[in-house]
Fold this protein.
Amino acid sequence: MTIDAANPHFGSDNYAGVCPEVLDAFREHGGGHCAAYGDDPLTKRACDAIRAWFDRDCEVFFVFSGTAANSLALASICQSYHAIICSPKAHLEEDECNAPAFFSNGARLLPTNDTEGKVTPAELTRLLRAREGDIHFSKSRVLSITQATELGSVYSRDELRTLCDLAHDADLMVHMDGARFVNAVVSLDVHPKEVVEGIDVLSFGGTKMGMPLSEAVVFFNRKLAEDFEYRRKQAGQLASKMRFLAIPWIAMLEDDTWRRYARNANARAQQLAARVRAIPGINIRPVEANGVFLTMPPAMVEPLRRLWKFYPSEHVRFMCAWDTTSEDVEALAADIERLANG
Amino acid sequence: MTIDAANPHFGSDNYAGVCPEVLDAFREHGGGHCAAYGDDPLTKRACDAIRAWFDRDCEVFFVFSGTAANSLALASICQSYHAIICSPKAHLEEDECNAPAFFSNGARLLPTNDTEGKVTPAELTRLLRAREGDIHFSKSRVLSITQATELGSVYSRDELRTLCDLAHDADLMVHMDGARFVNAVVSLDVHPKEVVEGIDVLSFGGTKMGMPLSEAVVFFNRKLAEDFEYRRKQAGQLASKMRFLAIPWIAMLEDDTWRRYARNANARAQQLAARVRAIPGINIRPVEANGVFLTMPPAMVEPLRRLWKFYPSEHVRFMCAWDTTSEDVEALAADIERLANG
Amino acid sequence: MTIDAANPHFGSDNYAGVCPEVLDAFREHGGGHCAAYGDDPLTKRACDAIRAWFDRDCEVFFVFSGTAANSLALASICQSYHAIICSPKAHLEEDECNAPAFFSNGARLLPTNDTEGKVTPAELTRLLRAREGDIHFSKSRVLSITQATELGSVYSRDELRTLCDLAHDADLMVHMDGARFVNAVVSLDVHPKEVVEGIDVLSFGGTKMGMPLSEAVVFFNRKLAEDFEYRRKQAGQLASKMRFLAIPWIAMLEDDTWRRYARNANARAQQLAARVRAIPGINIRPVEANGVFLTMPPAMVEPLRRLWKFYPSEHVRFMCAWDTTSEDVEALAADIERLANG
Amino acid sequence: MTIDAANPHFGSDNYAGVCPEVLDAFREHGGGHCAAYGDDPLTKRACDAIRAWFDRDCEVFFVFSGTAANSLALASICQSYHAIICSPKAHLEEDECNAPAFFSNGARLLPTNDTEGKVTPAELTRLLRAREGDIHFSKSRVLSITQATELGSVYSRDELRTLCDLAHDADLMVHMDGARFVNAVVSLDVHPKEVVEGIDVLSFGGTKMGMPLSEAVVFFNRKLAEDFEYRRKQAGQLASKMRFLAIPWIAMLEDDTWRRYARNANARAQQLAARVRAIPGINIRPVEANGVFLTMPPAMVEPLRRLWKFYPSEHVRFMCAWDTTSEDVEALAADIERLANG
């Protein structure tokens, strides 16, 4: 355990805490007795809120973590010999300790050669053709895409349509990892239902919205939800006091709390980008959601890490959260500027 | 979803909500930014609180659910070809949708023929000898016992010592399912460390204590904890905002909140037993923790279920929770009495 | 490794070697080059021979072992949260080191309380009703029955029809473990197709017929065979030189070799039963296939084990093989008689 | 099933059949009764023959297929969260339908960026450092190398020593996929024991030597063999009539049959290479074992495939087998020459 002194504010959007609306809802609904395991009115109300939010009939299941949401959604589609096509930057591939193979007892991730965070139609097509029908390899069964992506970009509706059509034409299902789904929705400035057209199952992230923890697996292709309750239970993802996974969704979706916070996170990323764009030596990737991915002179990285917590990899990443303030952004930008000016 | 009108109060101790101390701690510690995935001061403080509480060095990991705590603890011991000896009433065997086999990719539950909720030395000895070394069967590797048991009883320290010695002599590890561990501790009226003598790994239940959700896997045999962080991550049991699993333990263990609530739950069970014991047709099992298991004339069951939520199986079960009141007990007892008197 | 001196002849029907017809076929077809992994004329011919033998269209896949045949057949039906109803004496339950859970990543065996080797309609019905729809348990998905059974009996066609109808009515599939399928066929004296009416998938045993090793997974419900080739490959059950699993079936089924040997094995069991039935202290279960299951005075068991290899459990078991001779039987019977007479 | 008319002779070394020495041994040892599951004198003799051949104490287990040998060997080392470093050309990665993840319930293959068939020290070092200790990725636990490689080359003893030292220094085990181990041994012209220095576990291929099927998992690091018998049984890889997996090893190793056939296969590859090397447009990779990997003008490929079965991928591959004759080679070479000359 290495608890460091750097300001954690842009380390990750899961470094943030819980928003007051959720705390208030816990206080309002968290006492008294009700049936466990989801058989209670609050869970029903939260599922209905999600259905209303999407304006679509769908099957909704709350689970504890994004890794579990992704892996259970994929396991409901994949047998052990299947392959999951994804970006090489996908959280699935890079940051889940091979959980999809664990939950499905062997299904393989098949990353494209894309380098920019999105799966491209060309790469999807190439993989769909490679070793098709070869039992010595594996059988491609799902396309998984992340919205917003792990590099801070957002698939347009046209891009989504093209990928979904390609996948479905090849008899693949489409999974969307929506750990930052609301950031994509406000970025595209459309109704949520338009972001899930063609999607069979969505991992809908609540934690990064401002909840303590809660993710929803949302099946728009309702056949895939068959027996999902058994699968969730067996995987240790069925909450006994389910209302505590449900209450935050009520607090977030029944009014526009989700939108207010997502807009703030995205706006803070824009602010940061605008603030540092002109600094010599800084190159910023397009900012479309709540993250800023940039490169900076290597000599700046370590001094900056002593001041701020962030993850330098191929890019330096700064994530803005529901509660990031203009002052936070300004303080970070000022430090970057100062270090750049040596 | 069947949301019924019966009073849920004795349905299960996980029908209860969150206690005010935890809500207050969420408000106190739930804002601001800190590192994710457990690399934060609150998680460290909660782990230290557990170590202090047991007055033992041990490895502590928070997970989301009791099923996950049990299965991950067992998977850290078992290979796919191993067997787990347990009571036929064990939650593992009866209520986890074969999760231990899922997490360990095949390990088998080997229930004894005990009928009273506890594993007995005679049955453990019998199973240890049966098919020992027979590769066509499986290799016994763990004894799992539940404290307090699924039938409301509590293993004495002598019983625990005998079972642990038998298991260890046969090169088995001992796992304790402590979903209601604090109820056992207050029942035995000893220091917690005395209840885990000989135990290699404990699933320490927080949810039923009064938390929204949080379970701790506590390795007293620290070698078993090797790489457990990878295992937890891969299984989707690593909370990003880990502090929300940790904060409740701080609220519960740093002062005597845990004891106050566990004593209340146990006392309410005693009150209920005392209140209905003399009613003709009612036979009560010994009450040692927070549950009352009894038999009643079959004709009483359905009318009572219209009034109160409970699970009738071999026995009728009434569970008392951290927040059960004397008035709740009195109301239930009065209904039982009235129905018994026709 | 304990290689003992006792005559192994009745130890098991897999103690026998390879029959000359198969050796001759290996010599005839085992040289020269042909495509691997089953894409060769001999494999096609063997599959056709099985289809002709059953006079039914079906999907046929050769695998190496009975455990694999059973587990892969079941994995093609079961998800990890499913249950497989079977006899408590089933090879699946007693002798496969929990392989079904390994191959399916968690599916549970759910043995009936039957004690006589067969699953009975009453027990099947009881289990179908117990905890139906309870996600905390598991979902029953397959009935697995063994023909001939592990206790030497054979399901009649009426018994099979009743069980299959009960299973299918409850939306379960039916698997038949046919490690000794040909012994059942000659015992019932019917066309093989009549023994698989209502069966969705059969593990058709070749090894005990007189092959060195080869088992066929035969899907009469052809939808279940979808992608089975991937599953077999991934499980390490795809032979590169597949013809060596196929050739023995050609040798056995294209003429009546199978029948001749199965009849011999069954007849030798009848001979043994007839020979020892009248001996005081010997109680013989009904002999319907190639095994004799009896009880004898405990004092006789050890002296007999020094002379003959056999497995004493609840019953003493003597298995007759394709090559067992009248002289072998007579020698065993004489020893039993001598020991019984003190 | 696409049974084609092209001459299969160079399609793969597993297109070849069984050698006469093995057939004769089957006839000699394949009758009569002996204990099943390996508890017989022939299995003991074959294991001893392998130990004598390596002149080392080691644990030996026969299994049915190369995929199973590799996956079981790796599962005996890996937990579900581990990673296996290998070449991107490894059979493990390219041709086993993700079996390692299936057998280990999730372990991940981590291919190097090497393109020439061998793992290089530079790439191994790079991967050992990348994301070390990062629980969000996976923990590297094994280096798997193939000897002879999938591109027809052979690791020198120095190369092996360097890789094994690097791996062991990083606390990794080393697995060798020896599907064509004897071809490497005769190529290096050393005692077999010198090819396994530093190797913890070897998948020792029998099938391609000239057996119908049999692979040996050989643990030189004997601790890894603990409980392997359970693992093999559970995975459906325990032969009941084990002698039929053992007899071929007796036939091959007790005299120099293995060497004679391996030398022939390697010599035929050299002959083919020598014969076509000078043909314009043909570029041959170094030939060190029994395969010839070359590139040819694309226009030649399809006409040649109508005559000969082979697998064109990045390279055109021609495999020579134990029974390949000079005349076979000459016929193939003549066709290549003719097509090259238009």
Remarks:
- The mean pLDDT of chain D is 96.
- Residues 257-340 of chain D form a domain with the Aspartate Aminotransferase, domain 1 fold (CATH 3.90.1150.10).
- Chain D touches chain B at residues 37, 79-81, 105-106, 135-136, 138-139, 227, 229-231, 233-234, 238 (CB under 8 Å).
- Chain D is about 40% helix and 15% strand.
